[in-house]
Design a protein that fits this description.
Blueprint lengths: L15 E2 L26 E3 L6 E3 L13 E3 L13 E4 L2 H4 L3 E3 L6 E3 L11 E4 L4 E4 L26 E3 L5 E3 L25 E7 L11 E10 L16 E4 L5 E3 H5 L5 E4 L3 E10 L4 E8 L4 E7 L1
Antiparallel strand pairs: 1-5, 2-3, 4-5, 6-7, 8-9, 10-11, 12-13, 13-17, 14-15, 14-18, 16-17, 18-19
């Protein structure tokens, strides 16, 4: 889930994307298979889930009324140097029988079977949404909840309560190269680890880095099934930062200070820490707990 305010507990991200009619494009490769933006022609980007070329955008002016948010898949705003694609925000804006897909961030027809969903996703026939097959989330998608309560409120494990007081599924994010099957196992229906539901790009704390550039971030998560978070950060159950090469860094041991480890009750935690990198303007980071979901985030300076 990505960059959609979730009240006190979740300020994150589940906007959906409408690929048709946004941005200028040329060539005839829209919809063809791609592996990166470089695989697509001018005016198009590679969708990280569908692996298809879709029209790009650099601002909301490029987008139709049904999908006015121009952003990259990680939720950061599209720009001239880093184009995004047009994202819708509600099912109603999509119109007709379409839904804002939490899987592809596009206006899509409601799924009726798994064959309608991208690889790695399964169809929730009640909501018509494709949800990550890497979790047991999604069965409660579309049901009511209270955004002001600690996550996941009345939503089931693997879901979170959105700003519209509705349960929505969280995916096992593999949209960045930091997180892959070789760096961490998939989040499955048998998983019970902590669930990351929001990552906030904070004001960078330069003093935390001796010479490299600082990228400060806060990761929010709720405790796994039948568990609570420990009072001491050293007892966190396998909490990692994944570098661009996929190497895991133990966050509690290397990056997190006890004073920046905050508990909300005993089921929700916030961990604020700084990554030091030679990257000059942006850093792609991966985060995850053992037996929990993966989360990709682009941090900027």
């Amino acid at each position: 889930m990505r960059n959609a305010t979730r009240g006190l507990w979740l300020i994150a991200a589940v906007a959906a994307v409408f690929a048709m009619g946004c941005g200028e494009s040329s060539g005839n490769d829209a919809g063809t298979t791609c592996t990166s933006d470089a695989s697509c022609g001018t005016g198009k980007v590679c969708h990280p889930v569908t692996k298809a070329c879709v029209p790009s955008c650099t601002g909301s002016v490029d987008c139709p009324p049904t999908a006015k948010t121009c952003a990259k898949f990680d939720g950061t705003a599209g720009s001239m140097t880093a184009p995004g694609f047009c994202q819708c925000s509600t099912d109603a804006l999509c119109g007709g029988n379409l839904v804002c897909s939490t899987a592809t961030k596009m206006c899509e027809n409601k799924c009726t079977s798994n064959s309608n969903c991208p690889s790695g996703f399964t169809c929730n026939t009640t909501s018509g949404q494709c949800t990550s097959s890497g979790s047991d989330a999604g069965s409660d998608a579309g049901t009511g909840c209270d955004k002001n309560n600690p996550q996941p409120d009345t939503c089931g494990y693997g879901s979170a309560c959105t700003d519209t007081n509705m349960c929505e599924a969280i995916t096992d994010d593999r949209s960045c190269p930091n997180i892959s099957s070789s760096t961490r196992p998939a989040w499955t229906s048998a998983s019970t680890g902590p669930v990351i539901f929001n990552v906030v790009d904070e004001a960078d704390e330069a003093s935390a880095c001796a010479s490299d550039n600082a990228f400060t971030v806060t990761v929010y998560a709720y405790a796994g099934t039948g568990t609570t978070f420990p009072t001491q950060k050293t007892n966190l159950p396998g909490f990692f930062y994944y570098t661009s090469s996929g190497n895991p860094v133990d966050i509690p041991a290397v990056l997190l200070q006890q004073s920046n480890y905050t508990l909300y009750g005993n089921t929700v935690m916030g961990a604020k820490f700084t990554l030091c990198s030679t990257a000059t303007s942006s850093l792609v980071a991966g985060f995850g707990f053992t037996n929990g979901n993966g989360w990709c985030q682009t941090l900027t300076r």
